[in-house]
Design a protein that fits this description.
With 532 residues, the protein is α+β, with helices and mostly antiparallel strands. 44% of the residues lie in helices and 16% in strands. It is built from 15 helices and 14 strands. Strands 9-8-7-6-14-13-10 form a 7-stranded antiparallel sheet. Strands 4-3-2-1-5 form a 5-stranded antiparallel sheet, covered by helices on one side. The protein is globular, with a radius of gyration of 27 Å. The two termini are 53 Å apart.
Amino acid sequence: MMMRMMMLISGGSIVSAEAVWDHVTMADRELAFKAGDVIKVLDASNKDWWWGQIDDEEGWFPASFVRLWVNQEENTAVETVEGASPSPSEVQNGHADASPSSSDCLCQPAQDRDQMRANIINEIMSTERHYIKHLKDICEGYFRQCKKRRDMFNDDQLRVIFGNIEDIYRFQMGFVRDLEKQYNTEEPHLSEIGPCFLEHQDGFWIYSEYCNNHVDACMELSRLMKDGRYQQFFEACRLVQQMIDIAIDGFLLTPVQKICKYPLQLAELLKYTVQEHSDYRYVAAALAVMRNVTQQINERKRRLENIEKIAQWQASVLDWEGDDILDRSSELVYTGEMSWIYQPYGRSQTRVFFLFDHQMVLCKKDLIRRDILYYKGRINMDRYNVVDAVDGRDDDFNVSVKNAFKLSNKDSDEIHIFLAKKLEEKLRWLRGFHEERKMVQEDEKIGFEISEYQKRQAAMTVRRMTKQKGHRSVPPGYPPPMDPMNPGQYLVGDSMEQSEFEFPEPERCKSPFWQSFMEKGIAGFKKEHNEH
């Protein structure tokens, strides 16, 4: 595959790739894009990182984030990158081969079509009933028995292992009750189950917490199972409850499997539901809702898998003060370098800004080692609004500005002004602030947060890596390979590895609000301003 690509590129063929995921840049010379963007591939000699172009921008991007297209403008057949198709979220969301085709439905005899719909309805009802039994076995057979053994399990362990399984059990019982009311036992194909999914759509968000916690549950169970006492205890629980011969981790996996299966079932049901059927528009709407639920759950899971990188990035920043990033944030939204003035008549300072959900961190580059960052404060995005600034003389700061925007404190007269180098960069920041606010609102809606257990695990990983390497921690992962047009650009000293979280060329942007510069407040920053 790689050899063929390089032959196409060197032969003058246009090789393009469609972005499957958003890529937020974290290092110099990386190419930012959103899912759906088309990237022209210029160099694919490295199997993990390719060099590409979007409009006038060039940079590195991870090969696993794209699907490869050859001669796209001529509509030649698409060829998927090795190992990239279909993505797990596509399968889980029901996108892979699940799009209903009206021709598939219409070309079948009505009797066969009705029978197929009846079969799917019966399968949905059957699996729901079996699922309720599994949830009951987990709650009564395992969870309640574990709570009785305080000598073996503390509250933190129970929370990690079982998550919000009891909430899921209660929700699912109510959902199944409503499904049973809509189920036509005499003529199952006439059943109208679509409205049940729509009525309960908000309730399905509780699966997000459970799915996000599932990896930690498996890790904790694996640790406990090294002790023979726990193996015997869980097996005894299974036998007393008369459960099927599946280990506890298999039972705990069923909610994850269930929420991922709904889009597949609904897509299949819609395929055999004619548009004239009273349930058609409800099933179509339910399919969209459940795809969105699983997509958001996958996104939250991806963010949780990224928290170690955030912890490692923080460990790489010198002179860090105040709370850890993970105490409030779980996603790097956007980053870039700008000029900044935080008081009228104050002098402009150049800082590297890292916009996370809820907060923006300010860093200063080392004068000699430009890949080293010093912590200089943070801004509480929940307390600020973003205000666009018109080019020209600014009345608040009495200075001429261009490509600027402000952060205005909602509770005081405090205002900060930022100046980007280009208009495009300013617009990216404004989009970034918008996205940050949107992310915060969605997290509040579904109750997304990083557990204390997950924070501790991330911190332990960073300490272990730092100890092994013998120097301060630097975010792992992806030093992009050297620029093919500029060899040697990424050479660094022996004591410093190339890092994933460096100061990048800004990327996609999001929403408004800022953070007070750590706990020392504006007075501390004025003092720092005078010192530097």
